[in-house]
Amino acid sequence: MSEIGFIGGGAMAEAIIKGLLADGYEAAKIIVSDKSQERLSYLQKNLGVNISADNVKVVTDCQEIILAVKPQNMLEVVTEIAPNCSREKTIISIMAGISTTALEELLPEGCRVIRVMPNTPALVGAGTTVLSAGKGATAEDLQKACRIFQAVGSVTVLPEKMLNAVTGLSGSGPGYIYLIIEALSDAGVLAGLPRDISLQLAAETVKGTAQMVLETKLHPARLRDMVTSPGGTTIHGLFELEKSGLRGALMEAVRAATKRADEM
After folding, report:
1. How far is CA 43 from CA 13, 33, 177, 193, in A?
2. Which of 26, 41, 134, 216 is most buried, by the most CB atoms less than 10 A from its CB?
3. 135 and 43, same structural domain?
4. What percent of the chain has pLDDT over 90?
């Protein structure tokens, strides 16, 4: 009998499974269903997990079921599995923009639902995941879900009303940072650096700067002041960024992504 089931075997499901395996969880206790037999064969061969083309089997076999399908497929999948769900099972959704209430309305009364917003750095064990419990979920359910996602990075528990803002910031945020890294890399090439060196320096600069914020616990403005000398190179660069509206553009990006999550 499996213990954790994944409905959907895409990149995020694979990342979570890899994290669980690295954390000592047994592959034999995990089962994955997916519409693609090719994808299932890949997961079985490379990760050693159980596989099935039947979503209902995953629900029947497992206590914790992770819904890792696209939001647009939610209605089809949840309607299919609902008759086999019960209060004894915990439904953990990583579908962006889908509220616990929306899921609870499709599931039998009293089903325990937890909504999760991970992000793609989970693929390298550096994810940022936020969880919210539905009205039927217990503290123990939330604790178990936290342990699952701690295998792929940091975990935070917040009220569900904040989840769409989380989606706009940390869920979509990697996309913004990739664009920034690409732009910095292009700037390095413009200034005369080889492409591979420029990309490496840009990515490592972003990584190290984020680590400084997390480890020192200092406000980013204070850390920025520490590297901004009077009349120096950094203040000239910052002046150009302020003129170009970088700060406002990033804030608008988060707001737009949050709005889209609200609409979903």
Report:
1. 10, 10, 29, 40
2. 134
3. yes
4. 81
